[in-house]
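Troubleshooting entry. Yesterday's outputs looked truncated, so today I'm pasting the complete records for two proteins to confirm everything comes through intact. If either block looks cut off, that's the bug. Protein one:
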Amino acid sequence: MNPDLDRLQPYPFQKLTELKAGIKPPAHLEHIALSIGEPKHPTPGFIAETLASHLHGLAHYPITRGGDALRETIAAWATRRFDLPAGSLDAARHVLPVTGTREALFAFAQCVVDRSRDPLVLMPNPFYQIYEGAALLAGAEPHFLNLSADNRFLLELDAVPDAVWNRCQLLYLCNPGNPSGAVMDEAHLRQAIELAERFDFVIAADECYSEIHFPGATPPPGLLGAAARMGNTDYRRCVVFHSLSKRSNVPGLRSGFVAGDAQILERFHLYRTYHGCSMAPPSQAASTAAWADEAHVEENRQLYAQKFDAMLEILGDVLKVSRPDAGFYLWPETPVDDQTFARELFGQQNVTVLPGSYLSRDTEAGNPGRNRVRMALVAPLDECIEAAGRIRRFVESL
């Protein structure tokens, strides 16, 4: 067996299951899960209808690059969304569809890391655990950059020593951040690109939450837009990852894309022809329809905004919690240890939240997720309001 498998840590939800083991919450309270970031809003009807009307495509093997229509629709969407120069994002060279960004974020490290050169893969802490697993199984050492309220949950790139950058081969960004919802501005993204040029590494920007922002707010910037406005219109060293799961409420479709540096994507395409993750033709058709429509995305944002308003009104004076810049998570401080908070909240109120320490790693400066919990506002509005009331009662009982 691959010995690097022994370096993987249990997934956060496995830890959460063990934390809750043996606890019997009140039977009269229906369970409300705020722990998993799985969108619960209805899938738009036109996406499901497009999927169903293209089932005849199952009679054909899909190609790894995806069909022209899908790639061209993605390129057009990204060009509009991130204000890219016309024609700079070539659908044939700069775009690859992927079967969900989770598999792509993992596979990317296997493609770009040279394990013979004592590599580091840098990532935020807290983080999406795929980054760490990808680094370990690529033969690299994860290097964690702590995010806290003191740095507004943003990467302090200036604080990273040159010795670390010299070993860095891959930097994972998450913008907007999971779990904090903090947004890196374009100046911050440009700084990351400048460092990539100076120290010869690749940036993998996980932008899966970029379309979940508040109505009327300035949309979060993207890495490709920052690169283009620096004159880097071939998107050298920059690769972005986008998903329909959150944007369009289709987590089961397993559909997203990667875009950016054409030379890197050509090698990634080679890897993927062996990896075998081509998107099925019906999924391609449904994805093309989804990327071409913005009305359902605007409605989605309205639903999340209503839930943030309601939950913050109920919890704002009993927990240290604030409205994020984007995304659909709350990231409050807890008045007791985060694991104790999550376990006792479940036991007393039948509400599940995720301990922040499960999303982070211990470092010399501590565990930046400790004494916080992640609350995913994915349930319907009435359930979120009910959950907030129960959480309030629990906190007031402490």
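Protein two, checking that the full record survives here as well:
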Amino acid sequence: MDIQRELKQPARWKKLSYVLPVVVLALGYYAVQRFTGDASYFVDRETVVTAKVEQGDFQVNVRATGVLKPAEIRWVAAQVSGRVEQVLVKAGAEVTVGQLLLKLSNPQLQRELEQARWELEAARAENNATIVALESQLVELDNQVVSAELGHQAEKLKLDAETLLIEQGNATVSQLDYQKSQLAVKREQQRWQAARQKALKMRAEIAATKAAQTARSGLLENNLRRMQEQVDALQVRADKAGVVQQISLELGEQVSLGGSIALLASQQNLYAELQVPEVRVQDIQIGQSVTLDTRNNEITGTVARIDPAVENGMVLVDVALPASLPADARPELTVDAQIQVSHLSNTLYVRRPTYAPKSTQIQLYKLDEAGRFAHKTAVALGQVSVNRVQIVSGLSVGDEVIISDSSDWQDHAEIKLN
């Protein structure tokens, strides 16, 4: 005989036991979803740099580095050969016109100078003796002229007296004596004229001799002056005021004629030589304003020249500077420069991200309103300045984006900032 069992109904909570895990899983998923969202990458907020999009005037600048260069620079060359005996200045020293830079020694030049001086003195003494001798001869000739003139006058007086007696019919004077007197007058006149010609010739000879002596003395004086200048050139002096950039010689070193001694540069007339990346030089034009930072002062100049050549990815740009410069402006001083390329009015811009080429489209991570998540957003860029970039599209005023390096999570569309 079968015994009928009494069936017991299971408790209600046991019937609903499967619901609890589902609820727990749902709550967990909600909590995880609320915490992580759609983010597939987590980033420490302290490691990122963000910036907000702004709107307003945007100055487009190109940054460059360079040095101040002297517009007037020249080498001081050796006028004579010699050995460096003393160096009186060093590179960086300010010198004035005529200031002694260094001393050279050359004993041969000293000996040649003394010889030239003695040659000039000997020539002067010889010239003086020659002129004295010639003038003595001239005195004798002048005496002969006077004697001949007196003889002529005496014979002329005698002839005149005899002529008068003959005209009076006085027979005391014979015709023969009268003719002899006429001949004597002619003879004395010729002797007087000959003496005068000799005296004139002597004066001409003395004048020619003096001219020749003057020319020879001038030649010797020029030679002495040249030798003196060469000896003086052993004292090398600055021919212009400026700053010594370089001294090419050391103590005891031999320098030949025309050899380089010192490089002098004017400290007042300077220009800036900048190195601009070739990718930015296309924005630069002559006449644009440039601000130079010397670490202590700022100098405003203008672009004066753009080198057509590219070297190591850089282009040289010369900047003209005003005549009045700060006291710390010196040749070879390193400066930072900002070249003002253009000015944009009422445009969107943001601090320049790590990678932001001009006129391109890049991907930036834009933060949500809470600042917990960042979504990858396509952003079109325009003009690029030193530390800001123009936003053409993709962002609005007030949007906050990550501008630091995001290459580690570029494959993720959304990240979470912890």
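Both blocks look complete. Sanity check on protein two: The chain has three domains: 41-69+270-417, 73-104+234-265, 107-232.
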